[in-house]
Amino acid sequence: MEASIAIQILPKVESTEETIRIVDEVIAYIASTGLHYQVGAFETSVEGDFDTLMTIVKECQLIAINAGAPGVSSYVKIAYRPEGGVLGIEEKTKKHQH
Description:
four-stranded antiparallel beta sheet; 3 helices; Alpha-Beta Plaits; alpha+beta
């Protein structure tokens, strides 16, 4: 694996219910990619190749807008090693799962 991202989508909407609905649509899209991912309380982590992950980052913005958000802010963390060897989700979190 050459890359992983953590993405937090913050739709600019009025209600908590709308925020949750839109974020759920974004997460459903991420799930549909078939890549390994993990949803956290603040962000979703995804593993894969760099180009695919950058497309996912872009699409997450568009999905939020198409779901009804007039605007969206996102926070993205990217780990990238072209030769591979990026630590995976399991490696980072397994010992902390209960």
